[in-house]
Every structure is written in C-alpha cells, then in structure tokens.
Amino acid sequence: MVSRIQMSGPAGRWVCGLLLLTLGLTAACTSGPNQKSPAVTTPPSAPATSPAALLGSPHRSEQATVERVRAYLESNRPFQHILTAGFDGRVLCGVYLWGTSASKHEIYADATCGNYGVVNGAATQVSGYSTLVVLTTAGAPTTTSITAFKVPGYDDAARRDILAWFPSSIVNRIEQEAGPVVDRTDSQLLTEAQALVTAGQLPTYTPPGS
Questions:
Q1: What's the mean pLDDT in 56-74?
Q2: Is 204 within a domain?
Q3: Per the domain annotation, does 207 fall within a domain?
C-alpha cells in the first residue's frame, strides 16, 4: 500500500488526496463535488507496445505523443472540469507515457495537472489532479488524433478500472515504479503559468473568505 498526497491550495486546505491502491494504481479526488466512477468499458485486447515503438524514431515519436496528449487534456473541457469545478482557471499538465496498444488506438499515460489562477499578482495552483488516463485515437499512427479519454474511478473502482483498461504488461510496470516522472514538473508548470500572467492570459482567483 503506497499513498501520495497532492499539494494544498492557496488557502492552506488540501485540495486533492491520491491513493495508490495495492497495485500501485493512481486514483484521484479534487476539491469539487463528489464524482461518480466512470463506467467500465471493454478492456484493450491487444498487448501494449513500449513508448519508443509509437511512431518511428523512439525519442521524436514519444515526445510527439506526449505533446499531443498534453494539448488534448489541457484543451478538453470535460477533463478540465475535473479540476475547474468552482474556478474556471487555466489547466496545465505534465505527462508520462506508459505506452500504446498494439493497434495504436489506445494511449496509456499518467497526467499531473494543475488549475492555475492569479492571486496577489502571482500565478498560483488553485487545485491539482494526478491520474492515470486512457486516450482513444483515430486515424493512421502518423496522423492520429485523440478522440476520447477516460480516467479510473476512486477507491475500489480504480483497481477494477485499471485491471480492465490497462494491458497486464503496463499494470506490472505501474506496480514496479514508485511514481512516474512526468515531462513537466510542478515548478515548470508554475513558471509557464506565470508567463501567462505576464501576457494577461490567466484569470484572477479569489480564495474563499477573502
């Protein structure tokens, strides 16, 4: 049993507690209302490939997929709503790529995201969310576009969902790794958010009770 706690919000209250269940799974919660677990769908039937096998050249292909996943999550309103209930800020994410299905039509990733706003003139992470995510793609591998995503539910549902959605080879890796290193750290995301403040593109957040 391994536990991980997300950072607190600007008001000093915990906004998200993460529980890695007995498989090392990543479940998540936010400071918003309680949410029901996503419905379980048909698990991938083909074994996963390594990230390096995604699109030709290992490093270029992996980075291109990471950037595509990040762009999708940061602009997808249903995903953003997980973080932005109560404050519609700017969502920025770091991504770790676990791999893809053999068909290349499922991408398996880990995302650590923050919802950022301006507090006293500075960029601030209002809420945070870290989760495993499965993304569905369409098109040829070199021109693929992401069309949908799903994240595991909470508690027992997280264990059930990950066993159903992720190939056993990736589940084994999740068990063995203490925590994936996403491509952008919290510090890097905060720096990016501060640049948005300078550009006048980050909304102002007023903490409760202010």
A1: 81
A2: no
A3: no
Residue 121 lies in a domain: yes
Helix (H) or strand (E) holding 100: strand 90-101
- The pair of structure tokens assigned to 168 is 């056993």
Domain that holds residue 66: 2-198
Q: Which pTM does this prediction carry?
A: 0.73
Cβ neighbours of 204 (radius 10 Å):
12
Assigned domain for 208 exists: no
Mean pLDDT to the nearest integer, 70-87: 92
- Sheet with 106-119: strands ordered across: 48-49, 90-101, 106-119, 122-138, 145-150
Give the whole-angstrom CA distance, residue 152 versus residue 118: 30
pLDDT at 177: 80
Average pLDDT of the chain, as a whole number: 76
